[in-house]
Design goal:
One of its GO terms (molecular function) is phosphorelay response regulator activity. This is DNA-binding response regulator. InterPro entries: CheY-like_superfamily, OmpR/PhoB-type_DNA-bd, Sig_transdc_resp-reg_C-effctor, Sig_transdc_resp-reg_receiver, WalR-like, WH-like_DNA-bd_sf. The protein is α/β, with parallel strands linked by helices. The chain is built from eight helices and twelve strands. The strands form three sheets. The chain has a five-stranded parallel β-sheet, with helices on both faces. A hairpin with a 4-residue loop joins β7 and β8. α2 packs parallel to α3 and α6 packs across α7. The longest helix has 16 residues. It is elongated.
């Protein structure tokens, strides 16, 4: 099962929020969280990981542009698409200056919004800022590291450092969405065309990667062996 993209919808218009949640529910690729105020949206954006944020410009408690600025100030690079009823050029510039990636004017067709979201998701996944969830870890390919969840006792957790090849193996398997990837395909994608590299090289890297990420040593629960290849457990 492919990993669902988490979308945060922040808008004080309850009817519009409900409509968006219903529309997103028709697509298996999305999981939606919705709130009705800028403060709630900001709090969630800081405390949870989302793949996309849809943010209304005009809300009673605070302007969406201010929320976007605070999200960016917190170091969160998640793509933001802003919604507004104002068609003025000044508002568009203000929205983009706040750190938003795009701007959609109400009323809009859901198909148009969906196309914009998918385009930004594709771009973001290739960027240096992308963060993915792999099992209990936050996976940051650009930094070549996995970050474990916070320790309930409050003790600091230590990042798991990855080699470039380990990073690329995880990234490619993640993008396969849980489907099995043949060994030859992984070799080509991670090492490129090189007749000197064999499947034994790949198997060695997979073994070392498992030593780093599997909760129980010797048990493959995240990086799975499949007939002819490997897959990443998705939940």
């Amino acid at each position: 099962m492919a990993v669902k993209k988490r979308v945060l919808v922040v808008d004080d218009d309850e009817m519009l929020r409900s409509e968006l949640v219903e529309q997103f529910a028709l697509y298996d690729e999305f999981e939606t969280v919705d709130v009705g105020s800028g403060a709630e949206g900001l709090s969630l954006a800081k405390s949870q990981t989302f793949d996309m944020i849809i943010l209304d410009v005009d809300m009673p408690d605070m302007q969406g542009t201010d929320v976007a600025q605070l999200i960016r100030s917190a170091g969160i690079a998640t793509p933001i698409v802003m919604l507004t009823g104002n068609t003025g050029e000044a508002s568009e510039i203000l929205g983009l200056n706040s750190g938003a990636n795009d701007y959609v004017t109400k009323p809009f067709r859901f198909g148009v919004l969906l196309a914009r979201l998918r385009a930004h998701l594709r771009t973001f996944e290739q960027s240096e800022d992308a963060v993915f969830t792999v099992g209990p870890f936050s996976f940051k390919p650009a930094a070549k590291k996995l970050t474990p969840p916070e320790d309930p006792s409050g003790r600091p957790v230590r990042d798991i450092r990855l080699t470039e090849k380990e990073t690329n193996i995880l990234k490619y398997l993640y993008r396969a969405g849980g489907k099995a990837v043949a060994r030859d395909e992984l070799l080509e994608e991670v090492w490129g065309y090189n007749s000197g590299v064999t499947t034994h090289t790949l198997e060695t890297h997979v073994y070392r990667l498992r030593q780093k990420i599997e909760p129980v040593k010797g048990e493959a629960t995240l990086l799975l062996t499949q007939p002819g290849g490997y897959s990443l457990a998705m939940s």
